[in-house]
Design brief:
three-stranded antiparallel beta sheet; 8 strands; 46% helix; globular
Length: 335
């Protein structure tokens, strides 16, 4: 297989636009090779059928269109979340606890509700499907976000707030018979993990700092599993994700420039040279759509596999008609 060096491609683009995020590729072959050779972990992907759309949550779009004053947004969000949770309890075989904010937001997001979550997938090809599945007259976009880097960034921030350990380890204090104390760390169980993550989410939602927090809830239904779903939570609801991250990167770059002037020859740990270190937008040309859908079908990425159930199966059959797919192996072998 020929190679496509994404790192070299990004470095070349960043010479002229260090804070840019758009990362164009010339051919469909470049696109598929790029995705096939992407790092296997640490990144999440999102497909959008219109390249002009910003990374905004549905809740933010709906609230902006409603004309509600911003100081009423949180109250409106709480109201629709309570209504969804109360109505959905009888429809979910094993619902998450009522206090599990991340779990309920994830379910609400997956079934069409307006939340401050944005859907992502651990698979670039699943996300590519969502970018091209709908016939349009515009180019699409495949977004990639470095959730591992985001996690490290919020980890360093939360360390100063005193709850960095909520994500992985719990501090246990033993009171010994001689009156002394001994502290140790233990891995959190599911309940401790859930409570810790929700505490972090609620704390960040009360801040004014705009940051896309990576969220992987413990409750994953069959659809979320098929789509390798994860989410980012918009902590501020007032700006797009890409604008927030570019602002963060701009500050990091200024910090890096100051460091280089005062300490030449010494690298700044964790410095971001450009926005593409954490977020990229790859244009997907409209002319590539049918060829991409055919390639994805060969990977068994269809509506039928991504939306388990009869609705997904029916949608997959409709997609085959819409794009004029050739006969299947079943058509050829069965009488």
């Amino acid at each position: 297989m020929p190679s496509f060096d994404l790192d070299s491609h990004i470095r070349e683009l960043s010479k002229t636009d260090p804070l840019g995020i758009e990362t164009p590729l010339e051919t469909i072959g470049d696109l598929l090779l790029c995705l096939a050779q992407w790092p296997a972990s640490g990144w999440a992907f999102r497909g959008q059928s219109d390249i002009s759309w910003p990374l905004k949550t549905r809740l933010q779009r709906e609230l902006e269109q409603s004309g509600k004053p911003r100081d009423e947004w949180r109250e409106a969000e709480n109201s629709i979340l309570r209504e969804f949770r109360d109505s959905a309890l009888s429809e979910i075989p094993a619902p998450p606890p009522s206090s599990d904010l991340a779990g309920w937001l994830a379910i609400m997001q997956q079934y069409g509700g307006a939340t401050r979550l944005l859907d992502w997938s651990g698979s670039p090809f699943v996300s590519l499907y969502f970018a091209v599945k709908d016939p349009t007259n515009t180019d699409a976009a495949l977004w990639a976000i470095n959730v591992a880097h985001l996690r490290s960034m919020i980890g360093s921030t939360t360390m100063d707030m005193g709850w960095a350990d909520e994500f992985a380890l719990g501090r246990v204090t033993e009171h010994r018979a001689d009156g002394s104390k001994h502290e140790r760390f233990e891995l959190y169980g599911p309940d401790q993990w859930r409570n810790g993550v929700n505490r972090v989410i609620r704390t960040l939602m009360d801040q004014t700092f705009a940051f896309p927090l990576p969220v992987l809830p413990l409750y994953l239904d069959s659809r979320m599993k098929a789509q390798q779903a994860l989410f980012t939570l918009d902590t501020a609801l007032e700006t797009s994700i890409e604008a927030a991250l570019q602002s963060i990167c701009r500050g990091k770059r200024e910090e890096l420039d100051r460091w280089k002037k005062t300490m030449p020859g010494i690298a700044l740990p964790g410095a971001l040279e450009h926005s593409r270190s954490i977020i990229m937008k790859i244009p997907v040309k409209n002319a590539w759509r049918l060829e991409i859908m055919t390639a994805l079908e060969r990977m068994n990425i269809t509506r039928g596999t991504l939306f388990p159930g009869l609705g997904g199966i029916g949608g997959a059959a409709l997609e085959r008609i819409q794009r004029g797919s050739p006969p299947t192996m079943r058509d050829q072998l069965l009488p």
